[in-house]
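Our consortium's second objective concerns turning raw sequence data into structural hypotheses that experimental partners can test. To show how far this objective has progressed, the report includes one record in full. It was chosen at random from the queue rather than selected for favorable results. The single chain below, 448 residues long, was entered without modification.
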Amino acid sequence: MEGVNVGDRIKLEITDISSEGMGVGKYEGFTFFVHGGIIGDVVYIEVLEIKKKFGIGRVVGILEKSPYRDEPQCQHFYQCDGCQLQNLAYEKQLEFKKNRVINSLMRIGKIEDILVMDTIGMDYPYRYRNKVEFQVGKDYKIGFFKKGTHTVVPVEKSIIQDEIVDDILIIMKKFMKKYKVDGYDKKSKKGIIKNLLIRTTKENKAMVVIVTKDEYFPHKKELIEMLTYSGNTVVSIYQNINKNDKLVTLGPRDIKLYGEDRVLDHIGEYKFLISPKSFFQVNHEQTKVLYDQVVEYLNLTGNEVVADLYCGIGTISIYISKHVRKVYGVEVVKEAIEDARENLKLNNIDNVEFILGKSEDVLPKLNEKGIKIDAIVVDPPRKGLDKSLIYSIIEASPQRIAYVSCNPSTLARDLGYLVEEGYKVVEVQPVDMFPHTTHVETVSLLIR
């Protein structure tokens, strides 16, 4: 951009928020993404970068404070990248997430005139997460990455996590300092602990997974004693070995150090056993809201045969089982299918069958066997559906599809494909599964 250089200070009105949580404004028609900007602010920004199509800046002064600006409840908000929207009023967060879905559908999916419902929020949008992954760094630091970096910001507590996590965090820091078991530093290749993963259940039980660079992990006995001293809150402790220096938290090998193989959790009336690597939605309350919406969208009468693709440990399959004649849950991860079958036994359910394999391979085989699929549920990872699976779904020709998504961009792309092949998107319901972040979960109803 001509006339503006790195280091300059310019006046800007913030008119939107990006998917990364940065304020968005225009200066003489040129777009800037602004750290610390909120919709409705008029600010001075310092220009940090100028690229071909946009610039990046940070707020250095507020001329007119937005009516939607809130005081963050977390002391670490301005350093840590765990939450992006804590300084935005909660009702405005819900509106932002609805608009993000609408804009993705129009811009990426080329789909207009879809009924996108208001985002379903929480009465108390704090302390909702049942899983947290902390970064561990040298000098006994445990926390999250500093915004835009891989520098660990130490965290005393996190108000979006269960209170149990705060207590475990204190114990882990005491252990590391007392026994000089330091965090792993990628640059020097020194240290032991890379990450700390904690799962908590509705019954206030916890699983702790300590991720180490190698199998060497001194003073394990002392750690177990410290974590289990104050009662039976911590019921399972694992060591996970991850030799890879990439950002993937868990490695392939788990060593149980203490307690139960898996922890027991609930969604509604159903029980689920969860292992260290299990995918389980992070928000108990909103997961039930989401799954109830799936049931409503499928309009189940009790006679339907449903395929649940990317079924994981079987949560949706089991949740909808009492409303259908038969569910086929399909998942490519062997351990997840094993957990899903255990969860069937746990809930005494006999009308669900779990199949190991790729959904795009299994679905045609069900058709070849003469099994007519009335409805399909898909809950894919962030990358969305494989193109070959979309063709398999079209071939199966279900009357209804419920598409659960955590990524509006890939959702919009996939819905665009399905619309081209003869499906109609009836309604999209955003659910605030991750308050104070830019992430939004949705469930969409498509009919043939």
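The partners drew two points from this record. The longest strand covers residues 54-64. The chain has a mean pLDDT of 94. Both points have been shared with the crystallography group to help prioritize constructs.
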